[in-house]
Amino acid sequence: MTQSYNKLVMNSQLINLIGASAIAISDSIQKAAEQTTGNTASFPAALVIIERYPKITVDLLGQYLQLSQSGAARLVKRLVNQNLVERHQGNDRRSVHLQLTSDGKAMFDKIQQAKIEAVSKLLKPLNKEEQQLLLSFLSKMAWEYSNTEIQEEYICRFCDIHKCPLPGCRERVEDWEEKD
Description:
Blueprint: H1 2-37, H2 42-52, E1 56-57, H3 58-64, H4 69-81, E2 85-89, E3 96-100, H5 102-123, H6 128-142, H7 149-155, H8 167-179
Antiparallel strand pairs: 1-3, 2-3
């Protein structure tokens, strides 16, 4: 009985700390991205996703960001008006592909740098070995986050895919690039 209780208490503590840490990390990244762009979270997240998938459509971008079609269209209009994104005609007249401009690429770099600085502050209490151990644990846990591409892209909306240690992420980008 005592052993079961101790296990339950340990799991509850771990669950609470993981939950609090996830929120702190997410909030830190979102705040850094918002401050960098002066816009709400979907704006910088859109830049990150468009950088990841050059020639993405407005509809798919909206799905990845969990926005309505009209919400995605308004967001893209703001990105275009700020000279961060260009629209290009797709294979048919209804299809539009998005691509970052040079200003958009520079903003993407600033967003990534802000994310690095925000998360680095949270990792400061850990030494190199502890950080490596955490990387190992998080890599194992990452496979359990979601079960659909749309959900994964939403979760990873601020990720720099080129720095991701997960083979599945790189495979998806390679598959996307082969389609073009």
